[in-house]
Amino acid sequence: MFNSPMTPNNADMDQTDSRPDLCHKCGKCCKSATTFHPYRKLQEMAEAGEEEAIAFLSVFKPFASIEEARKAVPEQVEQVLKVVAERNDMSVEDVTFYYCPYVTEDGICSIYERRPRCCRDAPYNGWAAMPPGCGYEGWQFRQREAHKSTIRKLKEVQFQMENLSDDGIHVPSRKMTLEQLRASVSEAMEPWLKFGSSQW
Ligand code: SF4
Ligand code: SF4
User: Fold this and answer.
1) 17-21, 162-166, 169-173: which has the minimum mean pLDDT?
2) CB of 80 within 8 A of CB of 8?
3) Ligand nearest to the CA of 100
4) Which atom of ligand 1 is closest in space to residue 23's alpha carbon?
5) pLDDT tens, position by position, 30-57
6) Nearest ligand atom owner, CA of 128
7) CA-based end-to-end distance of the chain
8) Local confidence band at 17 (pLDDT 50, 70, 90 cut-offs)
């Protein structure tokens, strides 16, 4: 999801176990969650037994409309709609905002000890669209920069190997072909393509 725990796949997860607790308990992410999947798709996933979808729908309830969500956390609604407008794989019609009935007026989780994994893991990486002012903003920035740095280094290695190859087929050590190297760099970039890794 954008700002909850519906993770697109595990490859998109950062090391949330070692992530510091930077939450200042504003409760905004509990009051304005969104997912990468339309609501109907989430329901199908839950009916098919997908645990993440079941856990998400066990706590989050859909707002009747985007306007209703805008009344709860307007800055988050605007942010998410802006992100969706910039992506070519989603449309506004696919976006549903959710609220959790377990968050108190002052932003505290009333079922903290048994909150689902999606809540424990959020934000699961630097690209989860947490509400503006979230305590994880700095952590997310560093996560994004770390991923970009890794991909850039891999691209540099590929560039150097292609230039140093003596036959245009193998890397200089001849331990792998350039084709294998390119495939391995592409594989590393793949989870982040939707965030622009081909341009990093
Ligand atoms: S938006 Fe960020 S700071 Fe606010 S409750 Fe959620 S995780 Fe905590
Ligand atoms: S279960 Fe708790 S942490 Fe999860 S969305 Fe609801 S209030 Fe927030």
Assistant:
1) 17-21
2) no
3) 2
4) 8
5) 999 998 888 999 999 999 999 999 999 9
6) 1
7) 23
8) low
Residue 175 lies in a domain: yes
What's the structural domain count of the chain? Answer: 2
How far apart (Å, rounded) are the C-alpha atoms in residues 69 and 65? 7
Cα-to-chain-centroid distance, residue 81 = 15
- Considering the domain architecture, whether residues 78 and 54 belong to the same structural domain is answered as yes
The pTM score is: 0.81
Inside any domain, residue 1:
no
In a domain, 5, yes or no: no
Task: Confirm whether 2 is domain-assigned.
Answer: no
User: What is the extent of the structural domain holding 180?
Assistant: 144-199
Choose one of 135, 169, 185: the last residue of a domain. Answer: 135
Rounded to the nearest angstrom, the distance between the alpha carbon of 80 and the centre of ligand 1 is 16
Residue nearest atom 6 in ligand 1 by C-alpha distance:
29
Examine the fold and report which residue of 84, 104, 135 is the final residue of a domain before the chain moves on: 135
Closest residue to atom 4 of ligand 1, CA basis: 26
Q: How far is CA 153 from CA 12, 149, 156, in A?
A: 19, 6, 5
**pLDDT, tens digit, for every residue of 165-200?**
999 999 999 999 999 999 999 999 998 888 889 999
109 C-alpha to ligand 1 centroid (Å): 11
Q: Which of 127, 191, 132, 188 is nearest to 155 (CA)?
A: 188
pLDDT bracket for residue 9 (50, 70, 90): very low
d(CA 60, ligand 2 centre) in Å: 8
- CA–centroid distance, 123 to ligand 2, in Å, is 13
